[in-house]
Amino acid sequence: MRLLIIGGSDAGISAALRAHELESSAEVTVALADDFPNFSVCGLPFYLSGETPDWRNLAHRTEFQGIELLRGHRATAIDPHAKTVTIKRASLPGEISLSYDKLIVATGAEPRSAFGLRKADVPGVFPLHTMGDAFAVQSALEGRHSVVIVGAGYIGLEMADALIHRGLSVTIISRRDPIFPTMDSEFGNRLTRELQSHGVNVLAGYSAVGIEPATAGSRVLCSDGTEALGDVVLVAAGVRPASALAASAGVPLGASRAIQVDRRMRTAVPDLFAAGDCVETWHRVLERPVYLPLGTTAHKQGRVAGENAISGGPGREFAGSVGTQVVKVFDTVLARTGLLEHEARAAGFDTAVAEAEAWDHKAYYPGARMLTLRILGDRRSGRLLGAQIMGPWTAEISKRIDVFASALFHRSTVESLNDLDLSYTPPLGSPWDAIQIAAQHWSGSVGRAQ
Amino acid sequence: MRLLIIGGSDAGISAALRAHELESSAEVTVALADDFPNFSVCGLPFYLSGETPDWRNLAHRTEFQGIELLRGHRATAIDPHAKTVTIKRASLPGEISLSYDKLIVATGAEPRSAFGLRKADVPGVFPLHTMGDAFAVQSALEGRHSVVIVGAGYIGLEMADALIHRGLSVTIISRRDPIFPTMDSEFGNRLTRELQSHGVNVLAGYSAVGIEPATAGSRVLCSDGTEALGDVVLVAAGVRPASALAASAGVPLGASRAIQVDRRMRTAVPDLFAAGDCVETWHRVLERPVYLPLGTTAHKQGRVAGENAISGGPGREFAGSVGTQVVKVFDTVLARTGLLEHEARAAGFDTAVAEAEAWDHKAYYPGARMLTLRILGDRRSGRLLGAQIMGPWTAEISKRIDVFASALFHRSTVESLNDLDLSYTPPLGSPWDAIQIAAQHWSGSVGRAQ
Question: How many other CB atoms sit within 10 Å of the CB of residue A63?
């Protein structure tokens, strides 16, 4: 049994490890285009901030016992009939062919170019998606003073924090105003103030339309004529699925141009699985596939793909994403799970939102911090549809959103959050946790107390 | 409709608030023996440590709109046929009688006396259960140097921390060795070291059998002849249900001498409900009643009792406790939910335990802290039965145990913890959270990977 995996990031390595764990006699090979298997792309901002000085520490793991890793091996074609993959090796002429019994495509995502611009079109302009990008940015930042970040998603926001930490002057350009449409606008406005209070120049509601060389550095042009000058420009305009390789082998793509897979991570092509940022992800609340590339999801999908590729059984199902996300920006954490109101309305729910403020622990114990929680529920059924929390770092926001995520996983009602036996001691919580105070607030506001 | 509630702590006040919320025209009266409605008994150690200087801040709330509070009103008898309660008012002669349509008994717990000893038997010896106790201890500690704590449960441990914080010399006596049988012995031993490293003298495995006056302070005598001398002695030997009032009215008690209630918090006596530390609690994992007095449970049971007492409908069920508990001792947090192995075995489960160590967040981001997690599961069904976590304060242990508690609530398998869409950002977690690393460890150790 020969399992070949294309891609050495979260999904590919998780698949390989799981397959080897279940069937140690299988021949498991991972072909990765670069030299950095299972590196944490989410960690790049912390390498560039200086908080993680040694980039080698960004590896999620460095031991891959029982797995053959082919570094610098870029797959250029898949022949699903011959069951072979054509590989171009870095700095070697010609191509080789690898055969497989089962193939997992885990080619990940690639940065979306802002206005058709790619790295190296203008000197001093960089994406930030790979270790190679990070090294290039690290080198470009030396001795420089100012950076313009195009895009205010997770990477853009974390880089604003990272570069201020490093002592640079930072401008961030967001097409949306309020910024951060991943969460409700109330949070976007507060996030802008958090950025500004740390010295970030926030241009919210500005569409960057071009970048041109300036006397020193580069100039980002916005559609209304506004210009932002920086020694270095980072383009963090989101990602799209790296699905071209699979598509050219006849693997069907979804509307988002991500690879279509079933809940067992099988594509429509026999013996060909796919997982991670290149595939459509089953959304457990919407009950349909969406494109939602996240490291957590990639790990889970890879594990499922590895398990199903190696076993002849009925197979394990990917349970689905509920859309849980969290980011730390300076001293603030923003977390969400489930749907936003407009997403839930579009899906036919009769939505109601309630906002509550609650202490992270009893106010009488020193250091209590105020959280803002928003709960989205269905007015008819009382079902929980989503939750968002914003508050200070160290207020256990991340794991509180996980309690909501667990409730979403089980299709709970908002009111039943009050039945959960959550932990309490005055330095760490309240007899009704902030989660439950928010739930009671929602129930009260919509008159759904049962 | 006249709802009378005996007891003004967590359960009684929760019941009153819920009843008023649902039926504002009802006449809701709470008779409490002391002057401190809805005070946080869990907060007493922090008042005595000095971290919460003003005892008034220990009130969970100070507004009780729409509820008649009768302070200093101690119920001495219930007549369930006449539907009246006899009340003795503090510092007033004679008794009064209050009638009710529905009655909720929320008389709480009372401290268990160590070896038949009660406060005031020996000067300088105190329980710590009420605001009155706290004032007496506060006054007794002034100008003193050493304290002996008899009992190493939550209050005993928190008081050891509190008194060291205050600069006193502390000896704690635990009948059990290792201490803290609420969690597995590995954790008890580590907790002893944590106490010792902060200067606490830990006597583990010593049975206190008496207390006698010494030249200065008091002397606690242990069964092996060991003696512990302190200016002040705190007896924190656990609690028992304050069920005598209900029992004398003919309300049946359970084996633990706690009031028997159904899931709707009804006693066997018509129109008589009970909730909180005086009742048996439905355990959702064991599926039988147990005595497990906790503030979180009291709040939930009170809310259910209030709802059912006020409404004529089929009634809401108390969903049950899964045994979630957490305590902070110096810089360490210990949390558990579900069962211990011996409890699960006694209930007929085919138990397996696995221990894992995992970082609270990615090790490459500064400040990562190591957690120790133990998972208890059923080997046959794969079902999660319990979890324990120990690690540094501020490592989101409390809310991590809540994710386990949510899984227990839903009768999940250990393996399905890996399906949960938990949040991840490098400063706050890992793509597989510590919860999931522990789950994978358990599955691997028992060969249950599906």
Answer: 8
